[in-house]
Amino acid sequence: MPSSDLDTCRLIIERWAAGDLEGVLQHFTEEILYLVNVDGIAVPFVSSALGKEDLRQRLQGIIDIFHQEKFEPESIVQDADSCRAIIDVHNIHKATGEQLRVKLRLRYWFENGLVARVEERLDAPYMEAFQRLVFHLENAARSS
Length: 144
What we know:
The chain is an alpha+beta fold. The protein has one domain (5-143): Nuclear Transport Factor 2, Chain: A (Roll), CATH 3.10.450. It is built from 4 helices and 6 strands, in the order H-H-E-E-H-E-E-E-E-H. It is elongated. The chain starts with a helix and ends with a helix. The relative contact order is 0.19.
């Protein structure tokens, strides 16, 4: 079991990289507040979530939509009141084969050893453009 918030951050990242959704979720409170700076209506797979079940559905959506090629931390840092991580992500959209390469910035706040709040920052315009691209590619494939 992790001995510090920093260890927990590392473990969450390692488990997500390994595809262990339940292993990731065990480190979050039931009331987890997971905030993302991207419009969740425009890009549902990166929507914010409130509560562990909502987060489970959101993360399962990522697993269903993408093949994860890379989820590699560039840095993981302990701050006075939180942990921060920058992750190099490379995913392939299962339906279209389009590559999604992003830098994911995460910040975790803890209560009693569990993550109570996360802020995820992505390049929002890029994510929205990617979603529009795969939406049109999928529609074109269905109509041909």
